[in-house]
Amino acid sequence: MSDPVKPSLVGLTRDGLKKALAGMGVEPKHQSMRANQLWNGLYVQGATDFGAMTTLAKSFRAELDGVFSLQRPQIVTAQVSADGTRKWLIRFAPGIEVETVYIPDEERGTLCISSQVGCTLNCRFCHTGTQKLVRNLTAAEIVWQVMIARDDLREWPRAGRNSEDRQITNVVMMGMGEPLYNFENVRDALAIVSDGEGLSVSKRRITLSTAGVVPMIPKAGEEIGAMLAISLHAARDEVRDVLVPINKKYPIKELLNACRNYPGLSNARRITFEYVMLKGVNDSMADAKELVRVIGGIPAKINLIPFNPWPGAPYKCSEWEQIETFGEFVNRAGYASPIRTPRGRDIMAACGQLKSESVKARASERLAEMRSAELSRMPH
Q1: Does 220 fall in a domain?
Q2: Pairing of strands 116-117, 109-112
Q3: Residue 317 appears among annotated catalytic residues
Q4: Residues 102, 133: one domain?
Q5: CA nearest 220: which of 251, 260, 183?
Q6: Owning domain of residue 304
Q7: What gap in Å lies between CA 93 and CA 162, rounded to an integer?
Q8: Do residues 192 and 11 make contact, with C-beta atoms less than 8 angstroms apart?
Q9: Same structural domain for residues 61 and 166?
Q10: Which CATH number goes with the domain that contains 39?
Q11: Of 97, 99, 155, 274, which is the active-site residue?
């Protein structure tokens, strides 16, 4: 009979590390110091084995190794796009896989991480939404995504990289899943990611994106404190009800009221509204005017996202000229409206394209069934 898998220390809070040490018999007077040494080894040095934590006695390192593991999850595939975008398919356990994407730019490097395996929201334009929810990710699994990216980009001191020369400058919770449906694990993970004595990504450079889980938005502001992004995608309820079905539960007026009251909201801490451009669906000038009207008074910017196609997608991307016209109107109304350059399309790493590889075939079958059902309901 094989030994049970050893638990990881990754994802534990500082208090969690102290409790783990207490469970090993470490005396209370030594727990804080040992926890700080482990914290540094995990999140500053990026250690993958206890042997590398040379601030700890050799005998204690061996004792830790007998109880805990620092082994990284499995990277199933690692792809690099022609534009430099990187995508990792990470397997945490059998059937538990997520995709994580790194997007390099001239002035920043953004890591897009996931909060769930699959999603319950079924947003019509999103590939992830065709994958049923398997489960929430743990805090460790969320943090691991950052650590694996740092491994691959050689960002740890052992690779000669100092903190001023990091490629990952920003982290966005815009990958697979709805972060506010996994609140506690997301909160704990982002506390580790933003800790100034660890992974040290400023909260001003961490953005949490939600489709609009209205009751959790104030709590996110108070307990997480990251920048907020809203997957809006329509300015009228009848359109958003279809594109983002959670709108039926929390309509636009309720969502925007929550945004107006978001803790810390200011011109320096604007809310980002994400707006995917869908041909003939939400890209008219009437839509642009309504968008400007409904967000009135909210310090905000609008990210216009050209729709990224995926196999079986029910929509087409708006014409580029129409996207520019739409953006110019919003900009003249006083809102920055950058058009997001599609990145990583050739490796299915662009916005809305993420999906666990192991379920893609099954998802294609479900899409075919959905289209067949929709056709059968249409009048003949």
Answers
A1: yes
A2: unpaired
A3: no
A4: yes
A5: 183
A6: 74-376
A7: 32
A8: yes
A9: no
A10: 1.10.150
A11: 99
pLDDT tens digits, one per residue of 4-50:
589 999 999 999 999 999 999 999 999 999 999 999 999 999 999 99
> Known catalytic residue: 99?
yes
Measure CA of the first residue to CA of the last residue in the chain; give whole Å: 63
Count Cβ atoms within 10 A of the Cβ of residue 263 and give its class: 0-12 exposed, 13-18 middle, 19 or more buried: middle
The amino acid sitting at 192 is I
Bridge-based pairing of strands 170-173 and 135-136 is unpaired
**Is residue 53 domain-resident?**
yes
Residue 286 neighbours by CB distance under 10 Å: 10
- Strands 96-104, 86-93: pairing is antiparallel
Q: Is 21 helix (H, G, I), strand (E, B) or coil?
A: helix
Residue 29 lies in a domain: yes
Is residue 210 within 8 Å of residue 203, measured between CB atoms? no
Q: Are residues 62 and 91 in the same domain?
A: no
pLDDT in tens, 311-343: 888 899 999 999 999 999 999 999 999 997 766
- Is residue 261 in a domain? yes
CATH value at residue 94 = 3.20.20.70
**352 in the Ramachandran plot: left (φ > 0), alpha (ψ -120 to 50) or beta?**
left
Residues 146 and 196 in one domain: yes
Q: Judge whether 283 and 251 are in contact, CB under 8 Å.
A: no
What is the CB neighbour count within 10 angstroms for residue 166? 16
> In degrees rounded to 5, what are phi and psi of residue 335?
-115, 125
Residues 62 and 171 in one domain: no
Q: Is the dihedral angle over the CA atoms 66, 72, 75, 76 positive or is it negative?
A: positive
Dihedral Cα 113, 119, 123, 127, nearest 10 deg: 70
**Residue from 27, 290, 351, 369 carrying the catalytic annotation:** 351
